[in-house]
Write a structure and sequence with these properties.
Blueprint: H1 16-20, E1 35-36, H2 48-57, H3 70-80, E2 87-90, H4 92-104, E3 110-115, H5 119-127, E4 131-136, H6 146-152, E5 157-163, H7 175-184, E6 189-193, E7 214-219, E8 232-235, H8 238-246, H9 255-266, H10 268-291, E9 303-307, H11 312-321, E10 324-325, E11 327-328, E12 336-340, H12 344-359
Parallel strand pairs: 1-10, 3-4, 3-5, 5-6, 6-7
Antiparallel strand pairs: 2-8, 7-8, 9-12, 11-12
Helix pairs in contact: 2-9, 3-9, 4-5, 4-8, 10-12
Amino acid sequence: MAERVAPTPPSLMPRAAVQRMAPYSPPTGGRTGKLRLDFNENTVGCSPRVIEFLREKLTQGQLAIYPEYVETITELAAFFGVSTGELLLTNGTDEAMQVMLNTYVDDNDEVLLLKPSYAMYRFYAELAGAAVHDVEYRPADLSFPLEEVLASVRPATRAILIANPNNPTGTGVDLDGIRRILEAAPGAAVLIDEAYFEFCGVTALGWIRRYPNLFVSRTFSKVYGMAAMRCGCLFSSAENIRWMHKAQSPYSVNTLAALAARAAIRDREYVANYVSEVVAARALAFEGLAKLGIRTFPSQANFILFQAGERAIPIRDALRDRGVLIRDRSYEIPGCVRVTIGTRAQIERFLDELGKLWNGAKP
């Protein structure tokens, strides 16, 4: 008698929203030992006080218990000038946007995004099953399209996500523009992602009690030099924070990150000195790129977008071979490359290597 062969079970299919999504694969391998001007990180590292604090506070037994956040939230709230009920500690700002969207956006709800902008806005909006509506940055100078955004807001709009200043363009919107958006979309959750706040100084954080639809995020991955820790904050009204707590995993931020955040905000001098160095290096980079005849776009952040034309990818690859990493953005802004601004010495090295390539034989 022939052995009975079991039928092949059908494949387990994911949600339709997941099937439609394009995968996000950040090129993060092979960066050790190179000049990291590709991911907008702090290029010299976190404050030494962070490492000292972790050594002082971290014990063997502490790693065996679930994280406790009371002291961290109390210190962070005081530092940012909000109440403890107006702050949500998050696993990077990626979790901040995910929790906000999971709390306020249903399948097929309309989410308004700027284009180009941080890829994870679209990632989490699509994962939530939202219908994404794009508004393009103005192509002539990549300035913020305020009037276009206002014209795109509808009663059906449930969320608007804005990076200010924007990544990868470097351009921003002023407070009056943010006010107009908030007032035009009272039924939408409006997130102002202030990942690069320290380099521009424009913040809507003081308005969270005035506008119940306002959400502001900050990160410890940029100026504080703690990208590996994955720690961020989401600010909004106390009522909004209570709702979002329900949509958040209770232990999403690890103990090391919670401790490190406390030490990071205490070293204000370190942050101020790093910001001053970056601002000076940014001016140096603009000047150096102009001398090479390379077109740049205005930037209020710790990076500059420049136009390399057909040489964008070859220039990126040739610089990588010389130990200098920059980020190609030509897949969304034709011919454009983004360079993170670090110290003046680092930018001098970048400009020197770029000059040899730019003025020599085409790579």
